[in-house]
Design goal:
The structure is a homodimer.
Chain A (H helix, E strand, L loop, with lengths): L11 H6 L13 E7 L5 E7 L1 H10 L3 E4 L4 E4 L8 E8 L6 E7 L15 E2 L12 E2 L8 H5 L9
Parallel strand pairs in A: 1-6
Antiparallel strand pairs in A: 1-2, 3-4, 5-6, 7-8
């Protein structure tokens, strides 16, 4: 398979209105990635890719992120078995964000054990005087202790 | 209405498994935000909020972002009329990302004129040798020239 090449960003019209893939990576060399469940549309997680991760994701058809805490490429699901199979890749108008639509083999994308990382809602509007989070998803899909053992928790304070 | 206060981030268990709203802002004081259409589930855009924008969004029930290019709070739709009415706010496991589910009055969230910013797909897997973007959405909802006039395009090369 040929190596993928990204186009140089030349004009706003090229970036927004053409078929040229010319992604923009930030000062740290990263592009944010939104990952949704292909069937339910639920947002599963938000992560980052560097250039290598995006190229490998495109070629392999499985989600490969860049872990900012561990500073390595991160083939999602390699430890837990919960691989994200790509069904569609979208890129936004100014090509500084990627949207992945995936099928998760095993059904979970969250290291805490829930299906989605976004298992809590924030009250708003008339309810916003009391900002107590509400658990929208109560059932865990897996037990993180059994899957990850003593591996360090990626959440940073 | 009372001013919203966020909790201090104390422990991983508090951040991941409690009802305390303790969002994490990055070194620039920002938190990434994924915005989806409440009805279709489509990802409309990805933006950023600072602390003030998140508090105002929660209180008002309409999406207020922080514009990194203009360095100001950005009440989405104030110019175009395409206000994003919040239907649900979710926060992720480590509370460093926000997911907004919105109804867009007018039906578009993209400054180029499309319904969603993610109107192009990237071929992958066996199709990845030819990385030509495909337009998945062909119809614009509005004419950006009529709506924005000569305002500077937010896309940066």
């Amino acid at each position: 398979m040929n190596e993928i090449e990204f186009e140089k960003r030349k004009t706003i019209k090229q970036v927004e209105e053409s078929t040229a893939l010319a992604p923009k990576f930030d000062q740290d060399g990263l592009i944010p990635v939104v990952t949704t469940d292909f069937s339910s549309g639920e947002v599963l997680m938000q992560g980052y890719m560097n250039e290598e991760a995006l190229k490998k994701t495109i070629t392999l058809g499985e989600a490969i992120y860049y872990s900012r805490s561990r500073k390595i490429l991160w083939h999602k699901g390699k430890t837990s078995g919960l691989i994200q199979k790509i069904k569609e890749i979208r890129i936004d108008d100014d090509q500084d964000c990627v949207w992945l639509r995936v099928d998760v083999q095993g059904g979970s994308s969250c290291h805490v054990g829930y299906r989605s990382c976004f298992y809590r809602s924030v009250p708003f509007g008339n309810d916003s005087s009391n900002t107590v989070l509400k658990f929208e998803v109560k059932e865990k899909v897996f037990d993180p202790k059994k899957v990850y053992g003593d591996a360090p928790n990626p959440t940073k304070l």
